[in-house]
Amino acid sequence: MISTHLAAWAAQDTQLLLVTLAALVTIVVLISFLSIAPFLSILIGTFVAGIGAGLPLEDIAKAFSKGAGSLLGEAGIIIALGAMLGALMAESGAADRIVNTLLRYARGSIIPWMMALVALVVGLPLFFEVGLVMMAPIIFVMARRSELPIMRVAIPALAGMTTLHALLPPHPGPLIAVSALHADLGTTMLLGFLVAIPAVIIAGPLYGNFIAPRLNLAEPDQIGKLFSAREGQSQPSFLVALVTILLPVVLMLGRTVARIWVTPKTELFEMLNFFGEPIIALTVTVLFAVVVLGWGQGSSRFEVGATLRRALPPIAGLLLTIGAGGGLKQTLLSAGISDTITKIADGTHMPLILLAWIIAVALRQATGSATVATTATAGIVAPLVAGLSATHNSLMALAIGAGSVFFCHVNDAGFWMVKEYFGLNLKQTLATWSVIQTIVSLIGLGMTLLLWGLLV
């Protein structure tokens, strides 16, 4: 006799998995073989998924609009502000000043290692999307000045930022997992660093050195022009350039400090929380850059205004594509893909840490969000870890974080950001960004299993 659980599975869930696969294949075929614009391809793939899942056409359109609007409402503004800041840093010579200073201490084969370290510092309190827009001018100028392939410089930075996003508080996903699993924050951070070091090394400089020569990529034209210095422009001091790029980092880190250590609803808490909001932090930084890197460097208000306006057209296609990815994700969520993945986990019998990783992987593939995957997985496995020590719960949180970044693909905003920023085609994006995240995920799993065995 078929159980109610299996009957429910047979009626809905197999169909949902198949239509999700069909939607992803449709998107890949449209982009890769028919050269349809990514935005339109994702929109068509969304309707394939929604219709196949049995959603009414009106509900598909509403889900797509909701997902696209929600993502663009935050990520889109962040990317626009980041593009303005990057243009100001490049045109004022601030990015060149930072690169010149770094090149005093790192040349040739050392540069990828330096970029991984810089990304770790800059990306510590930042969402990946924010970190990328902050690092982009440094990556482009460094590649140009060092005469290294753009992806050899970019991949270590990407690896550093995605590893932080997956494994280390104060990023939202790891913090939520620590809370849900009652893990110790300090222990999670310490173990997270131990796991992160080999992940960044292998996914960053080592993999970058391997794959970059095989891509044979030139600097993308539009974005490259955005991050070019004005001829004859005097450069600001290194201190001014450093303060500018680290200002949003400090503001966002202050928000995290407030939420952990400052008494809620006090004036200090409210101030740190307000200025640490990513949109506020980047707005403040852009205004600071207008004054210090623009007017302070002798540019007229008309020249600064022109620089800010020039920053937006090159990212228009990127914003539409990211919004479409958010629409696809919301449509799959509305169809019930998270419930389907949860049902798979319910009947699985395997070691807890491997189970947590697999659930996070499945949810990431379905939802396109590392934070959603981490949050949902932590909630699913929390009742199973009640009797474990705080140390083992920390390793569970890290395993979940590692699973949440496995093989990013077309339903994720980060995938399209990397593709458009660095002028990659779909295959090249899979070979770089998707593989970087997979390496980080697998090394994260391996390290947590190793530490789990050592700490038993």
From TrEMBL:
The membrane topology of this protein is: Multi-pass membrane protein
Localization, per the record, is: Cell membrane
Please provide, in alphabetical order, the Gene Ontology terms of the cellular component aspect for this entry: plasma membrane
Q: Which residues cross the membrane?
A: 16-33, 39-57, 69-90, 110-143, 188-207, 238-258, 278-296, 308-328, 348-363, 370-390, 396-418, 430-455
**Alphabetically ordered keywords of this record:** Cell membrane, Membrane, Transmembrane, Transmembrane helix, Transport
Molecular function (GO) terms for this protein are: gluconate transmembrane transporter activity
State what protein this is by name.
Gluconate transporter
Task: Write down the Pfam families for this protein, in alphabetical order.
Answer: GntP_permease (PF02447)
Q: Which family does it belong to?
A: Belongs to the GntP permease family.
Source organism of the structure: Herbaspirillum aquaticum
Q: What is its main location?
A: membrane
